[in-house]
Amino acid sequence: MNRMAPARPMIWLAAIALLLALAIAAIWRLKAHAVAPSGPVEVLRLAVNVEYVGSCPVLAARAHGYFAREGIDALLQPYSSGKASLQAVLQGRAELSTVSDIPVVLASLNQQSVVIIASIFEAERDHGIVGRLDRGVSTPASLKGKRIGVTLGTSGHFTLDAFLNRQKLLPGEVTLRNYAPEQLAGALARGEVDAAAGWEPFLAGMSHAIAGNAAIFYGEDVYAGLFNVAGAGDYVRNHPATMRKVLRALLAGARFCRDEPEAARALFSNASASEAARLQAAWHDYQFAIVLDQRLLLALEDEARWAIKNRLAERSDMPNFLDAVYLDALEDVAPSAMTVIH
């Protein structure tokens, strides 16, 4: 009996160590989800493309309490495109939106003050074109003379035009038909168009709609889009403290999307089994980061030239796109993430 006695302190020590570890983990979780203890809670409406993987930092910030920790009650409004999300901001139905660069360019060219507070996502292989093999669309060059569905004024539209230009096809050599993103798969399946251009997850939806009859061409060589958070210029500039809070929450959200891929993919709970499998396969190629990069300004200028050439907006002169980015908040919160020359 005496030989067994020393084991008891070891058991107690192990139990204490386990309880201490559990307590530390619980404290960490509480800190991660805690609401700021002082100051009023600020309600913020965010128009978000909730089905697009680029929205992951926003979804994570909402779901895991990073907005709440900053004293923000984030109300997410779902939209199927950045164009529609930004329209909600311009119409006063939301304060901020997730949006690609193209709608920001078109807003600037149409004398609407929109500013980007940060880019939150970048991917190359998430825009493209799906064609019907039975309509003779088997190669990029075979798009000539075809009817192509697209959501005008979006990154899908820009990608399509750049893709056609790469094939030395003139705009007049195809017929464009305008659809909302969620309508493209149906239009393709019904044969209203011979091909359709868009982005994920709608590309996958188009391919499944004509399963066994689909040719898909990705646009990674012509468009590597930056996905952003943007708001009306007056609102953003008049709420610098709020912008800093939003960016701190998004930094935590982007970190979650990078470090916890399985849990991050679970944020897209409405994804089909095939879409979930596609996300899992592609996740390592996604870049979740809260930045303002000089490449953004160069992209905005390139896209403005495209829009002016195609007469998609009122202005015919190049805007100063430094007016379309809000630098102060990110420079305060994460100065190393801000590389815009100014």
Automatic annotation (TrEMBL):
<feature type="domain" description="SsuA/THI5-like">
    <location>
        <begin position="56"/>
        <end position="264"/>
    </location>
</feature>
<protein>
    <submittedName>
        <fullName>Nitrate ABC transporter substrate-binding protein</fullName>
    </submittedName>
</protein>
<dbReference type="Pfam" id="PF09084">
    <property type="entry name" value="NMT1"/>
</dbReference>
<dbReference type="InterPro" id="IPR015168">
    <property type="entry name" value="SsuA/THI5"/>
</dbReference>
